[in-house]
Amino acid sequence: MVRQLHIRKVPRRVALALAVTLALLVPATAQAECLSQREARQAVEAGEARPLGSVAGSAGGEIVRAELCRQGGQLVYVLSVLLADQRVQERVIDARSGQVLR
């Protein structure tokens, strides 16, 4: 009987460890699939996204890195922005509307 309880506990621990690992990985995979420069240019030319310059004012600082990505079924700009206090912060901006999402 004791041996059976021990066998049942091991799979629960393994399942718990797997669930925690998956929970940590899901946000990373759910984040964004970024477009190549060619794909980004095509998306802008097709009117699927605004040019980066037209949303730059929403960034709130100097853009030091920018990527156009698909996230949650929409195109977004993922920006690294240098703030006035010299901190770098990530901003996510809707590529169609220019609205700051995060």
Considering the chains and any ligands shown, give keywords for the structure.
alpha+beta; 102 residues; four-stranded antiparallel β-sheet; 27% strand
Description:
This protein is of the alpha+beta class and 102 residues long. The chain has 3 helices and 4 strands. It has helices at 2-30, 37-45, 52-55, and strands at residues 33-34, 62-71, 74-82, 88-94. It has a 4-stranded antiparallel sheet with strand order 1-2-3-4, with no helix packed on it. A hairpin with a 5-residue loop joins strand 3 and strand 4 (88-94). The chain is elongated. Residues 1-10 and 14-30 have low confidence and may be disordered.
Q: Helix count?
A: 3
Strand content: 25-35%
* Main pleated-sheet profile: 4 strands, antiparallel
> Residue-averaged pLDDT, rounded?
78
- Stretches where pLDDT is under 50 for at least 5 consecutive residues are 1-10, 14-30
SS-derived structural category: alpha+beta
Q: Strands of the biggest beta sheet: in what spatial order?
A: 1-2-3-4
Given the C-alpha coordinates, what overall shape results?
A: elongated
Helix content: 40-55%
Instruction: Name the helix and strand elements from N-terminus to C-terminus, one letter apiece.
Output: HEHHEEE
Radius of gyration: 21 Å
Distance between the termini: 54 Å
Beta strands, count: 4
At a glance:
It is built from 3 helices and 4 strands, in the order H-E-H-H-E-E-E. With 102 residues, it is an alpha+beta fold. A hairpin with a 2-residue loop joins strand 2 (62-71) and strand 3.
